[in-house]
Amino acid sequence: MPKLVESLLIRGYTKNDIGEEEFSVLESCVSWIAFCEQIEDSFDVLAKSFLEFETDLFSLSLEHFFSDISSLDDHENAFSEGRSRISLRVFSVLMAAKSYEERVYRLAKLLPNSKEVLVEFKSIFSNKFDSFFEYRLADALRNFAAHDSMPLSGYSVGYRIESGSTRITEADPKRQRNSLSPYLRAEKITNSKKINKKIIREIEEQGFEKIDLKILVRRYISCMYTAHSEVRRNTESLMEKASVEIEKSHARLETITGRPSDHAYAIRENDQGSALYISRRRCQNTHLKRSRWSQLNNAHYRYISTGIYKSGKTHTKNEKELYIPD
User: Fold this and answer.
1) Using one digit for the tens of pLDDT, what is the confidence trace for 274-312?
2) In the sheet where 3-5 sits, what is the strand order?
3) Sequence spans of domains, the chain
4) Relative to the CA of 54, which of 86, 146, 158, 308 has its CA 20 to 30 Å away?
5) 116-118-120 Cα angle (round to 5)
6) 265: which strand partners?
Protein backbone atom coordinates (compact mmCIF):
# COMPACT_ATOMS: atom_id res chain seq x y z
CA MET A 1 0.00 0.00 0.00
CA PRO A 2 1.31 3.52 -0.78
CA LYS A 3 2.43 5.61 2.15
CA LEU A 4 2.87 9.27 2.96
CA VAL A 5 6.27 9.72 4.62
CA GLU A 6 8.13 12.54 6.27
CA SER A 7 11.57 11.67 4.88
CA LEU A 8 13.36 9.05 2.81
CA LEU A 9 16.66 9.57 4.63
CA ILE A 10 15.86 9.24 8.31
CA ARG A 11 15.42 5.81 9.88
CA GLY A 12 12.14 5.35 11.63
CA TYR A 13 10.57 8.17 9.69
CA THR A 14 6.89 8.87 10.21
CA LYS A 15 4.57 6.96 7.87
CA ASN A 16 0.90 7.25 7.06
CA ASP A 17 -0.95 4.79 4.83
CA ILE A 18 -2.74 6.17 1.78
CA GLY A 19 -4.64 4.34 -0.96
CA GLU A 20 -3.73 3.93 -4.62
CA GLU A 21 -6.36 6.47 -5.59
CA GLU A 22 -4.86 9.13 -3.33
CA PHE A 23 -1.38 8.29 -4.61
CA SER A 24 -2.63 8.83 -8.18
CA VAL A 25 -4.19 12.16 -7.19
CA LEU A 26 -0.92 13.32 -5.63
CA GLU A 27 0.96 12.14 -8.72
CA SER A 28 -1.23 14.36 -10.90
CA CYS A 29 -0.84 17.27 -8.49
CA VAL A 30 2.95 17.04 -8.50
CA SER A 31 2.87 16.97 -12.34
CA TRP A 32 0.75 20.13 -12.48
CA ILE A 33 2.93 22.02 -10.02
CA ALA A 34 6.06 21.01 -11.96
CA PHE A 35 4.41 22.08 -15.24
CA CYS A 36 3.44 25.52 -13.89
CA GLU A 37 6.86 26.06 -12.32
CA GLN A 38 8.77 25.15 -15.48
CA ILE A 39 6.52 27.30 -17.67
CA GLU A 40 7.17 30.28 -15.37
CA ASP A 41 10.93 29.63 -15.49
CA SER A 42 10.79 29.52 -19.28
CA PHE A 43 8.88 32.81 -19.46
CA ASP A 44 11.45 34.34 -17.10
CA VAL A 45 14.11 33.71 -19.76
CA LEU A 46 11.98 35.52 -22.36
CA ALA A 47 11.22 38.46 -20.07
CA LYS A 48 14.88 38.88 -19.13
CA SER A 49 15.98 38.74 -22.77
CA PHE A 50 13.57 41.63 -23.39
CA LEU A 51 15.08 43.57 -20.47
CA GLU A 52 18.55 43.00 -21.97
CA PHE A 53 17.30 44.39 -25.29
CA GLU A 54 16.00 47.54 -23.59
CA THR A 55 19.13 47.85 -21.45
CA ASP A 56 21.40 47.68 -24.50
CA LEU A 57 19.37 50.33 -26.31
CA PHE A 58 19.82 52.69 -23.39
CA SER A 59 23.50 51.79 -23.00
CA LEU A 60 24.20 52.37 -26.69
CA SER A 61 22.46 55.74 -26.67
CA LEU A 62 24.71 56.85 -23.78
CA GLU A 63 27.82 55.48 -25.46
CA HIS A 64 27.07 57.46 -28.61
CA PHE A 65 26.43 60.61 -26.62
CA PHE A 66 29.57 60.45 -24.49
CA SER A 67 31.96 59.00 -27.07
CA ASP A 68 34.20 61.25 -29.13
CA ILE A 69 33.22 60.17 -32.63
CA SER A 70 35.16 62.60 -34.80
CA SER A 71 36.07 60.68 -37.95
CA LEU A 72 34.19 58.63 -40.50
CA ASP A 73 36.06 55.51 -39.36
CA ASP A 74 35.02 56.12 -35.74
CA HIS A 75 31.46 56.59 -36.89
CA GLU A 76 31.41 53.39 -38.96
CA ASN A 77 33.06 51.33 -36.20
CA ALA A 78 30.60 52.56 -33.57
CA PHE A 79 27.58 51.82 -35.72
CA SER A 80 28.95 48.44 -36.80
CA GLU A 81 29.35 47.36 -33.18
CA GLY A 82 25.94 48.79 -32.28
CA ARG A 83 24.20 46.94 -35.10
CA SER A 84 25.79 43.66 -33.97
CA ARG A 85 24.66 44.16 -30.38
CA ILE A 86 21.11 45.10 -31.31
CA SER A 87 20.84 42.21 -33.79
CA LEU A 88 21.92 39.79 -31.07
CA ARG A 89 19.40 41.18 -28.57
CA VAL A 90 16.50 41.10 -31.03
CA PHE A 91 17.37 37.56 -32.09
CA SER A 92 17.61 36.51 -28.43
CA VAL A 93 14.09 37.82 -27.74
CA LEU A 94 12.66 36.06 -30.80
CA MET A 95 14.36 32.75 -30.01
CA ALA A 96 13.43 32.90 -26.30
CA ALA A 97 9.79 33.42 -27.34
CA LYS A 98 9.86 30.41 -29.63
CA SER A 99 11.58 28.31 -26.98
CA TYR A 100 8.90 29.30 -24.46
CA GLU A 101 6.05 28.38 -26.81
CA GLU A 102 7.58 25.03 -27.73
CA ARG A 103 8.25 24.23 -24.08
CA VAL A 104 4.59 24.84 -23.24
CA TYR A 105 3.64 22.25 -25.87
CA ARG A 106 6.36 19.78 -24.85
CA LEU A 107 5.47 19.88 -21.16
CA ALA A 108 1.75 19.71 -21.89
CA LYS A 109 2.29 16.35 -23.59
CA LEU A 110 3.52 14.94 -20.27
CA LEU A 111 0.33 15.80 -18.39
CA PRO A 112 -2.43 13.25 -17.64
CA ASN A 113 -5.03 14.96 -19.92
CA SER A 114 -2.43 16.03 -22.46
CA LYS A 115 -4.60 16.04 -25.61
CA GLU A 116 -7.19 18.50 -24.30
CA VAL A 117 -4.56 20.75 -22.70
CA LEU A 118 -2.43 20.81 -25.84
CA VAL A 119 -5.38 21.84 -28.00
CA GLU A 120 -6.17 24.71 -25.60
CA PHE A 121 -2.60 25.98 -25.52
CA LYS A 122 -2.11 25.79 -29.29
CA SER A 123 -5.27 27.82 -29.81
CA ILE A 124 -3.88 30.57 -27.53
CA PHE A 125 -0.76 31.10 -29.65
CA SER A 126 -2.66 30.60 -32.90
CA ASN A 127 -5.08 33.41 -31.94
CA LYS A 128 -2.18 35.75 -31.23
CA PHE A 129 -0.66 34.93 -34.62
CA ASP A 130 -3.96 35.65 -36.38
CA SER A 131 -4.72 38.84 -34.42
CA PHE A 132 -1.44 40.80 -34.45
CA PHE A 133 0.69 41.81 -37.42
CA GLU A 134 3.71 42.29 -35.15
CA TYR A 135 3.40 38.71 -33.93
CA ARG A 136 3.34 37.39 -37.50
CA LEU A 137 6.23 39.62 -38.56
CA ALA A 138 8.35 38.64 -35.53
CA ASP A 139 7.68 34.99 -36.30
CA ALA A 140 8.78 35.44 -39.93
CA LEU A 141 11.80 37.49 -38.90
CA ARG A 142 12.96 34.79 -36.48
CA ASN A 143 12.75 32.12 -39.18
CA PHE A 144 14.68 34.37 -41.56
CA ALA A 145 17.40 35.18 -39.02
CA ALA A 146 17.77 31.55 -37.94
CA HIS A 147 18.81 30.56 -41.47
CA ASP A 148 20.58 33.74 -42.53
CA SER A 149 21.19 36.77 -40.30
CA MET A 150 19.18 39.50 -38.66
CA PRO A 151 18.51 42.00 -41.50
CA LEU A 152 19.02 45.07 -39.32
CA SER A 153 19.41 48.10 -41.57
CA GLY A 154 20.69 50.52 -38.97
CA TYR A 155 19.58 52.80 -36.19
CA SER A 156 19.18 56.48 -35.55
CA VAL A 157 20.39 58.27 -32.42
CA GLY A 158 18.74 61.42 -31.14
CA TYR A 159 18.95 63.72 -28.13
CA ARG A 160 16.60 66.38 -26.88
CA ILE A 161 17.03 68.87 -24.05
CA GLU A 162 13.81 69.56 -22.18
CA SER A 163 12.76 71.69 -19.27
CA GLY A 164 11.95 69.72 -16.16
CA SER A 165 8.36 69.66 -14.99
CA THR A 166 9.38 69.80 -11.32
CA ARG A 167 11.48 72.54 -9.78
CA ILE A 168 14.18 70.94 -7.66
CA THR A 169 15.94 74.29 -7.02
CA GLU A 170 15.17 77.88 -7.84
CA ALA A 171 16.50 77.28 -11.35
CA ASP A 172 14.37 75.44 -13.88
CA PRO A 173 16.17 72.06 -14.17
CA LYS A 174 16.98 70.67 -17.61
CA ARG A 175 16.89 67.07 -18.64
CA GLN A 176 18.16 65.25 -21.68
CA ARG A 177 16.03 62.67 -23.43
CA ASN A 178 18.01 60.12 -25.41
CA SER A 179 16.51 58.07 -28.20
CA LEU A 180 18.02 55.18 -30.14
CA SER A 181 15.81 53.65 -32.81
CA PRO A 182 16.89 50.47 -34.64
CA TYR A 183 15.00 49.74 -37.83
CA LEU A 184 14.66 47.40 -40.78
CA ARG A 185 14.13 48.64 -44.30
CA ALA A 186 10.95 47.01 -45.51
CA GLU A 187 12.51 46.12 -48.87
CA LYS A 188 14.88 43.71 -47.09
CA ILE A 189 11.82 41.78 -46.01
CA THR A 190 9.72 42.12 -49.16
CA ASN A 191 12.62 41.12 -51.44
CA SER A 192 13.42 37.99 -49.43
CA LYS A 193 12.34 34.56 -50.65
CA LYS A 194 12.58 33.26 -47.08
CA ILE A 195 9.76 35.43 -45.72
CA ASN A 196 6.16 34.24 -45.85
CA LYS A 197 4.38 35.76 -48.86
CA LYS A 198 1.39 36.77 -46.73
CA ILE A 199 3.66 38.92 -44.53
CA ILE A 200 5.21 40.48 -47.62
CA ARG A 201 1.75 41.35 -48.95
CA GLU A 202 0.77 42.90 -45.61
CA ILE A 203 3.85 45.13 -45.62
CA GLU A 204 3.33 46.15 -49.25
CA GLU A 205 -0.37 46.86 -48.73
CA GLN A 206 0.35 49.14 -45.77
CA GLY A 207 3.15 50.96 -47.57
CA PHE A 208 5.85 50.66 -44.88
CA GLU A 209 9.34 51.78 -45.86
CA LYS A 210 10.83 51.07 -42.42
CA ILE A 211 9.95 48.82 -39.51
CA ASP A 212 10.78 50.23 -36.09
CA LEU A 213 12.27 47.37 -34.07
CA LYS A 214 11.45 48.95 -30.73
CA ILE A 215 7.75 48.96 -31.54
CA LEU A 216 7.96 45.50 -33.07
CA VAL A 217 9.74 43.94 -30.07
CA ARG A 218 7.62 45.76 -27.49
CA ARG A 219 4.36 44.80 -29.16
CA TYR A 220 5.60 41.22 -29.57
CA ILE A 221 6.57 40.90 -25.91
CA SER A 222 3.13 42.26 -24.95
CA CYS A 223 1.52 39.58 -27.13
CA MET A 224 3.68 36.90 -25.54
CA TYR A 225 2.74 38.08 -22.06
CA THR A 226 -1.00 38.03 -22.84
CA ALA A 227 -0.56 34.48 -24.20
CA HIS A 228 1.31 33.56 -21.01
CA SER A 229 -1.44 35.07 -18.86
CA GLU A 230 -3.98 32.92 -20.74
CA VAL A 231 -1.87 29.83 -20.05
CA ARG A 232 -1.94 30.87 -16.39
CA ARG A 233 -5.72 31.30 -16.41
CA ASN A 234 -6.24 27.93 -18.09
CA THR A 235 -4.18 26.22 -15.40
CA GLU A 236 -5.47 28.21 -12.41
CA SER A 237 -8.14 25.77 -11.22
CA LEU A 238 -5.82 22.77 -11.52
CA MET A 239 -3.04 24.70 -9.76
CA GLU A 240 -5.43 25.50 -6.91
CA LYS A 241 -6.60 21.90 -6.68
CA ALA A 242 -3.00 20.66 -6.59
CA SER A 243 -2.15 23.15 -3.85
CA VAL A 244 -5.13 22.04 -1.74
CA GLU A 245 -4.24 18.34 -2.04
CA ILE A 246 -0.58 18.96 -1.18
CA GLU A 247 -1.60 21.14 1.77
CA LYS A 248 -3.87 18.33 3.04
CA SER A 249 -0.97 15.86 2.88
CA HIS A 250 1.26 18.15 4.92
CA ALA A 251 -1.51 18.83 7.43
CA ARG A 252 -1.95 15.07 7.92
CA LEU A 253 1.75 14.60 8.66
CA GLU A 254 1.79 17.59 11.01
CA THR A 255 -1.11 16.04 12.96
CA ILE A 256 0.90 12.86 13.43
CA THR A 257 4.34 14.38 14.14
CA GLY A 258 3.26 17.52 15.95
CA ARG A 259 5.77 19.64 14.04
CA PRO A 260 5.71 21.74 10.86
CA SER A 261 6.06 19.88 7.57
CA ASP A 262 7.35 21.66 4.47
CA HIS A 263 8.57 18.56 2.66
CA ALA A 264 7.06 15.09 2.30
CA TYR A 265 7.04 12.06 0.00
CA ALA A 266 4.45 9.62 -1.22
CA ILE A 267 5.91 6.17 -1.92
CA ARG A 268 4.79 2.67 -2.76
CA GLU A 269 5.92 -0.03 -0.33
CA ASN A 270 9.45 -1.29 -1.17
CA ASP A 271 9.64 0.97 -4.23
CA GLN A 272 11.41 4.23 -3.42
CA GLY A 273 11.94 4.77 -7.14
CA SER A 274 8.26 5.71 -7.33
CA ALA A 275 8.62 8.39 -4.64
CA LEU A 276 6.77 11.66 -5.25
CA TYR A 277 8.33 14.76 -3.76
CA ILE A 278 5.53 16.81 -2.21
CA SER A 279 6.72 20.30 -1.35
CA ARG A 280 4.52 22.94 0.23
CA ARG A 281 7.25 25.52 -0.35
CA ARG A 282 7.43 24.67 -4.05
CA CYS A 283 3.69 25.37 -4.33
CA GLN A 284 4.05 28.70 -2.59
CA ASN A 285 7.00 29.75 -4.74
CA THR A 286 5.19 28.76 -7.92
CA HIS A 287 2.16 30.84 -6.90
CA LEU A 288 4.46 33.84 -6.42
CA LYS A 289 6.08 33.31 -9.82
CA ARG A 290 2.66 33.30 -11.47
CA SER A 291 2.11 36.92 -10.44
CA ARG A 292 5.34 38.23 -12.00
CA TRP A 293 5.85 40.35 -15.14
CA SER A 294 2.29 41.76 -15.29
CA GLN A 295 3.59 45.14 -16.50
CA LEU A 296 4.73 43.49 -19.74
CA ASN A 297 1.08 43.52 -20.74
CA ASN A 298 1.53 47.18 -21.72
CA ALA A 299 5.19 47.18 -22.75
CA HIS A 300 4.30 48.77 -26.10
CA TYR A 301 2.75 51.77 -24.32
CA ARG A 302 5.84 52.58 -22.25
CA TYR A 303 9.00 54.50 -23.16
CA ILE A 304 11.14 52.18 -21.05
CA SER A 305 14.77 52.79 -22.10
CA THR A 306 14.44 55.24 -24.97
CA GLY A 307 11.54 57.13 -26.44
CA ILE A 308 9.81 56.58 -29.78
CA TYR A 309 9.45 59.43 -32.24
CA LYS A 310 6.81 59.24 -34.94
CA SER A 311 8.14 59.55 -38.45
CA GLY A 312 7.02 59.25 -42.07
CA LYS A 313 6.38 55.81 -43.45
CA THR A 314 7.72 53.83 -40.52
CA HIS A 315 5.58 51.00 -39.22
CA THR A 316 4.05 52.41 -36.06
CA LYS A 317 0.76 52.47 -34.27
CA ASN A 318 -1.47 55.53 -34.21
CA GLU A 319 -2.01 55.79 -30.46
CA LYS A 320 -0.58 59.03 -29.09
CA GLU A 321 0.69 57.27 -25.98
CA LEU A 322 3.39 55.57 -28.05
CA TYR A 323 5.21 58.75 -28.90
CA ILE A 324 7.05 61.62 -27.33
CA PRO A 325 5.16 64.76 -28.45
CA ASP A 326 6.92 66.92 -31.04
Assistant:
1) 677 888 888 889 989 999 998 888 887 655 555 555 566
2) 15-17, 3-5, 263-268, 271-279
3) 3-150+212-300
4) 146
5) 70
6) 5, 277
